[in-house]
Every structure is written in C-alpha cells, then in structure tokens.
Amino acid sequence: MNRTRRNVIAGASIAVLAAAGLGYEGWRHLAKGYPPTPYDDLLSLLPDREPAKQVGRAFLTANSGFVPARAAGALRQRIAGRPLSTVLQDELAQGDIIEAGHWLLPQTLVGLCALAAKS
C-alpha cells in the first residue's frame, strides 16, 4: 500500500474525530446505569442515587403515606426549571427543612431522595 501525505492526513483526521466522539459520549458508558423510571427528569438532578436512597429510606420509615406520583408532581412544580442548588438555598433560607434519619435537609432534597428510594 502506498502511503501518501493525503492518506496519512485522512487517517489521522478519522482517528482524531473518533477519539473526540468517544471523549464526548464516553462518560455515558462510565456513569452508573439505573433502570428507567417515570421520574428520571427529577432523579437526574441527583449526582449519585445510592446515598440518596439511604436518606430516602430513612424518611420513608417515618412517612408511610408517601405517594411517588404525587411527590413527583409537587417536586416538578417546586423546581420549575430552576437549578437545584437555587431551590435548595431558597428552602434553607425559608426554613423549609425536614428531618430524615436525624438529618435536617431541604424539603426538595428529601423528596428527591424518597423518590430515589421508591424507584
């Protein structure tokens, strides 16, 4: 096979594009996978669902009347497209906190954790 400058440049370009594509989408393959739920739009706000599930289970032991669909609706209204950090800061400033397993946390965070525990 005859190596020309054009072939080398084309091969290198393809390799760079492939590496860029893997770098851009590769995180999806390394991220933890969870089965799909109707609440993924909310649960995707959590950086890691495993610790959230622990908090959620602690909350659910004391609150057996938790209904995921109703909670999800309330959470969607409360968050309303705002960054989660802003919502949590506002709740802390207003004193909207809930106890979950001896932790005092913002209402929205506890709701997300309970939703993760139920999913």
Helicity range of the residues? 55-70%
Give, in order, the helices and strands.
Answer: HHHHHEEH
Show unreliable segments: 26-30
Shape: elongated
Average pLDDT rating: 83
Name the structural class. Answer: mainly alpha
Count of helical regions: 6
- What fraction strand? 5-15%
Outline the biggest β-sheet: 2 strands, antiparallel
How large is the radius of gyration?
22 Å
Number of separate domains: 2
In the sheet with the most strands, the strands line up as: 1-2
Number of E-type strands: 2
End-to-end separation = 57 Å
Question: In words, what does this structure look like?
Answer:
The protein is mainly alpha-helical. It folds into two domains: 1-31; 40-118, no CATH class. The chain is 66% helix and 7% strand. The protein is built from six helices and two strands; from the N terminus they run αααααββα. It has a two-stranded antiparallel sheet. α3 (49-62) crosses α6 and α4 (68-79) runs antiparallel to α6 (107-118). The chain is elongated, with a radius of gyration of 22 Å. The relative contact order is 0.17. Mean pLDDT is 83; it is low at 26-30.
Could you outline the blueprint of secondary structure elements for this entry?
Elements: H1 5-30, H2 40-43, H3 49-62, H4 68-79, H5 84-94, E1 97-100, E2 103-106, H6 107-118
Antiparallel strand pairs: 1-2
Helix pairs in contact: 3-6, 4-6
Short description:
This protein is mainly α and 119 residues long.
